[in-house]
Amino acid sequence: MYDAGRYDVIVIGAGHAGVEAGLAAAKRGAKTLMLTLNLDLIAFMPCNPSVGGPAKGVVVREIDALGGHMGKTIDKTHIQMKLLNTSKGPAVRALRAQADKVLYQQEMKYVIENQENLTLRQGMVEKLLIEDDQIKGVMTETKACYYADQVIVTTGTFMRGKVLIGDIEYESGPNNQRPTILLSEQLEELGFELVRFKTGTPMRVNSHTIDYSKTEIQPGDEVPRAFSYETTEFITDQIPCWLTYTGEVTHQIIDENLQKSAMYSGAERGAGPRYCPSIEDKIVRFNDKPRHQVFLEPEGRKTDEVYVQGLSTSLPEYVQKKLLETVPGLENAEIMRAGYAIEYDAVVPTQLWPTLETKKIAGLYTAGQINGTSGYEEAAAQGIMAGINAAAQALDKEPLILDRSQAYIGVLIDDLVTKGTDEPYRLLTSRAEYRLLLRHDNADLRLTDIGYDMEMITEERYAMFNRKKDLIQDEIARLEKTRIKPTKEIQEIIEEIGGSQLKDGILAADLLRRPEVKYDTIKRIVPTEDQLPEDVEEQVEIHIKYEGYIKKSNQQVEKMRKMENKLIPDHINYDEVHGLATEAQDKLKEVRPLSVGQASRIAGVNPADVSILLVYLEQGMRSKVSNE
Amino acid sequence: MEQDTIAAISTPVGEGAIAIVRLSGEEAFTIANRLFQTKDFQQVDSHTIHYGKLVDPKTNELVEEVMVSVMRGPKTFTREDIIEINCHGGMVSVNRVLQLALREGARLAEPGEFTKRAFLNGRIDLSQAEAVMDLIRSKTDRAMSVALKQMDGRLSSLIRDLRQQLIETVAHVEVNIDYPEYDDVEEMTHTVLTDKTTYVKTEVEKLLQTAKQGKILREGIGTAIIGKPNVGKSSLMNILAHENKAIVTEIPGTTRDVIEEYVNVRGVPLRLIDTAGIRETEDIVEKIGVERSRQALQEADLILLVLNGNESFTEEDAALFEAAKDMDFIAIVNKSDLEMKLDLDQVRQAAGDAPVITTSLIHEQGIDELESAIGDTFFDGSIDSGDLTYVSNVRHIQLLEQAETALQDALEAMENDMPLDLVQIDITRTWELLGEIIGEDVNDSLIDQLFSQFCLGK
Ligand SMILES: Nc1nc2c(ncn2[C@@H]2O[C@H](COP(=O)(O)OP(=O)(O)OP(=O)(O)O)[C@@H](O)[C@H]2O)c(=O)[nH]1
Ligand SMILES: [Mg+2]
């Protein structure tokens, strides 16, 4: 055992949660150490080679607005990018990129190596050093002791990881990396409640052995796009994905071999995600479906490996092979890596404060898949928040908790720490009650100020951001006061877009509120002095067109905030609160919500319990006043 | 601190009595002003009473002539502005007045909410905090239990069905959003959604019509009076109903069919069912009657099990206790004016946790105890009364009206070509409102629906 140095913050793991945690802590000015099992696998994507999608893509932009790196990195390393849901409302649009996995890792590693205050080391952490329920540091298996009062654990699916293929099983992290056994045991000894989750991944096949002529092409968008607000260079040379389908014969093979699947033979104990079921799952649960989609996604520019999205499985390798033979285009496909299921320990997330610090051990944080989530974006979101908060504590600054109306990140963390999860948690737009406010196009407007206050956003970017904000405001104000007269020319323009004729003069903003009128038309009728940037025009249009709905949402948010601002003191004794239902009492004791608002979202706490809690808190407050 | 204005009927409601609709909150005066177009309550002195004509602001129709008390905060029960409208016209008119107040912007008070506000605003002494918490608890539980028990089974299954259709529709919209490439379902279109919304709206309007006629609630909690022949079942029915509805004779087996009567006991609306005494019999008519008694027993929410104190405990009595054991029941030992031949300890043991009341029905003794036992069964010992049939009905009407508005908003949004993910907000809202009527939890059901309806994944 030797003293290997003292840090403000130590991050264990360098997956998607770990890298954002380390970068955030370092950027805030904390002297930070990142320890990872294998320096060649930083920000590795063990499953699908893609970033973003509905809700998740918005999260990537939120991370970017806070000064994180997922967005910038994927902008530099994708092989194709798409804007999804373009035919729907602005609230649900989102970007998704296919990543070049290797480039993504390289780029992220480079960013980390060049980050001030951040030290990167290879090493397996064997033990957390704890004194009096306060974290003091960590010890590696090579007996190096690193000391810090804040430690963030981001070990993903490594804790007691076990890989399962057919009847074969062995202890392993994803992609045959070494699993983390001792840490899991230590957390259990400390009294943490762990659950066993599982997830899976499909096979990768050799691109040369795919007959693409039997599949449909899925190209990226022609318009250049980017996640990050800082990105100025766009990748134009894109690589397509391909779509094919399983068929009746595929399903028959799966059905016949179901007993051989690790999942259905009963070997697997963990709860699997409904959000990415294995192909076995799909056949069993939806046996009336004649076919299932299979997307073929290249894993990068300089590799032949193709990810077979839709065929996640834990069937034996030879069955995997047989089943591919029935899928058009994959008849002769060679498996380069077989699909497998992985089972792992996760920390029950209701044991965390909304800062992601554990309630049991001061200074100990957990972030990412270890908290029972699925997905790189969900992991990165928790990582950046844990990094921000660990650094805040180290440097004696305010913690940052985002609420459900500020960001999907807030929805994610609030769900986890308030409701827990009994299967790997995936973000969905329907989890957000203020979806219209949490758009991908306004992530910067929502969060850049916060990022800047934490010194995670450069002056240059902040100035740009403020310029954008001003332009939006000015243009909205202009349209709200510019009156359009029903001249012949204008009537002609309106007729051209299929609108009904103006009877009187009309405010430009009111004209824009008509369903058939777009900002482009307004621009023709009452042009601006200088051409406005596209994203400014977009904001003006959304703001004016959906004003009614936005206002409604904002009113709801105000109501929620009132309850959110009613804080519950940490020392509250729920046994003393007269009249609470027993179930509510138990749940409140477990979750220990920070506010009445949070309490009201706990399953099992009903409105009467909330009223009773309010009365109790008021009683406490008044007796305090009268005692003084 | 809490800004919205709440309203409720604040005195026990019964035919003939004066009932008060009470409004409390920032907008109490403005809402009242809208209901009494000729008056401006902002201008009058506090703590004064006014005569006024209450008019439906929508139709300009005169509803009632009433007395209005105006009390300006903070010298009021809740420390907020309070308006009290004193109505004479019985249930129907109080109901109407409350509904108008709700339509003009008040919110129906939650159980115990006036008291809660009084406390939160510092009007009620600190030492009473626990009493306040208990009050909220018992009032809520009681409102819930009565509201649910009273729903007509057919209507609640209709609402359940509408909700299922709504959530399937919402899940469809959601799957299009969260899984844009999933090709198993067609994109939801405005046309499909408009049809569905219009259909649900028609159904909600029908329900609202039913609710306004007061028919959404079953007219009382099914209460079966059971017992051996001649123990005094029909006598009990007559006493609780205050009228001679059932024939009483000294001949065992008098009542041969099921007789129903609606009564209100301590604010609990009961549908009393007098039954034929249960015994083995050869008489064909009586046999049918006994069968029906068994049926009534099974369908009842509350059992009044009558025993004759003047006879010893028989196997038949034991069998009745056995039949009632998993239900809410009250054991009544009647004919206490005669010699007590029944072993009361044995009765108490058979009754378990259920109350045992001793009565002499011909001398009208023990009726009070019996009535409070009935009240307690539903209200968990809470003291205050008030007709709950009523409150739940007003609540239903308000929820249905809100659902109607939400559906209207959805339809208008579709006409204006708003994107479906925005239209969906009001449809989800409707689903939540209908859920409140039947007391169903909303937690995570949408996500469950999403993944059971569609085969999603990577
Ligand atoms: N002494 C005495 N007689 C009572 C009392 N209550 C009822 N009775 C008499 O008992 C007889 C039967 O009463 P009912 O009310 O008809 O009894 P029942 O249970 O409806 O009888 P069936 O309909 O025949 O099953 C009548 O003669 C009543 O007057 C009581 O408290 N004391
Ligand atoms: Mg009778």
Overview of the molecule:
The complex is a heterodimer of chains A (628) and B (458). With 628 residues, chain A is of the alpha+beta class. Chain A contains 20 helices and 24 strands. In chain A, the strands form 6 sheets. Chain A has a 6-stranded antiparallel β-sheet with strand order 16-17-18-19-15-20, with no helix packed on it. A 5-stranded parallel β-sheet of chain A has the order 7-3-2-11-22, covered by helices on one side. Chain A has a 4-stranded mixed β-sheet with strand order 1-10-9-8. The model of chain A has no long low-confidence stretch (mean pLDDT 93). Chain B has 3 domains: 6-109, Probable tRNA modification gtpase trme, domain 1 (Gyrase A, domain 2), CATH 3.30.1360; 131-210 and 391-451, tRNA modification GTPase MnmE domain 2 (Four Helix Bundle (Hemerythrin (Met), subunit A)), CATH 1.20.120; 217-379, 3-Layer(aba) Sandwich (Rossmann fold). Mean pLDDT of chain B is 81; it is low at 380-389. Chain B starts with 5 loop residues before the first strand and ends in a 5-residue tail after the last helix. Chain B is globular and about 80 Å long. With 458 residues, chain B is an alpha/beta fold. In chain B, the strands form 2 sheets. Chain B has a 6-stranded mixed β-sheet. Chain B has a 6-stranded mixed β-sheet with strand order 8-9-7-10-11-12, with helices on both faces. Bound molecules: guanosine-5'-triphosphate and magnesium ion. Residues 233-234, 246, 254-255 of chain B line the site of magnesium ion (MG). Magnesium ion binds next to α7 of chain B.
Question: What's the layout of helices and strands?
Answer:
The complex is a heterodimer of chains A (about 625) and B (about 450).
Chain A: E1 2-6, E2 9-12, H1 16-27, E3 32-36, E4 50-52, H2 56-65, H3 70-77, E5 78-84, E6 94-99, H4 101-113, E7 118-122, E8 125-131, E9 134-140, E10 144-147, E11 150-153, E12 162-165, E13 168-171, H5 182-189, E14 194-201, E15 204-206, E16 216-218, E17 241-245, H6 248-257, H7 279-285, E18 293-298, E19 305-309, H8 317-324, E20 335-337, E21 340-347, E22 364-366, H9 376-394, H10 408-419, H11 443-453, H12 459-481, E23 483-484, H13 488-496, E24 506-507, H14 508-513, H15 519-525, H16 534-545, H17 547-564, H18 582-591, H19 596-600, H20 607-627
Parallel strand pairs in A: 1-10, 2-3, 2-11, 3-7, 11-22
Antiparallel strand pairs in A: 4-6, 5-6, 8-9, 9-10, 12-13, 12-21, 14-21, 15-19, 15-20, 16-17, 17-18, 18-19, 23-24
Helix pairs in contact in A: 1-9, 2-9, 2-11, 3-4, 6-8, 11-12, 12-16
Chain B: E1 6-9, E2 19-24, H1 28-35, E3 48-56, E4 61-71, E5 82-87, H2 90-103, E6 107-108, H3 113-120, H4 129-150, H5 153-178, H6 190-212, E7 221-227, H7 233-241, E8 259-265, E9 268-274, H8 284-299, E10 302-308, H9 315-324, E11 328-334, H10 344-351, E12 356-358, H11 367-379, H12 388-415, H13 420-437, H14 445-453
Parallel strand pairs in B: 1-6, 7-9, 7-10, 10-11, 11-12
Antiparallel strand pairs in B: 1-2, 2-5, 3-4, 4-5, 8-9
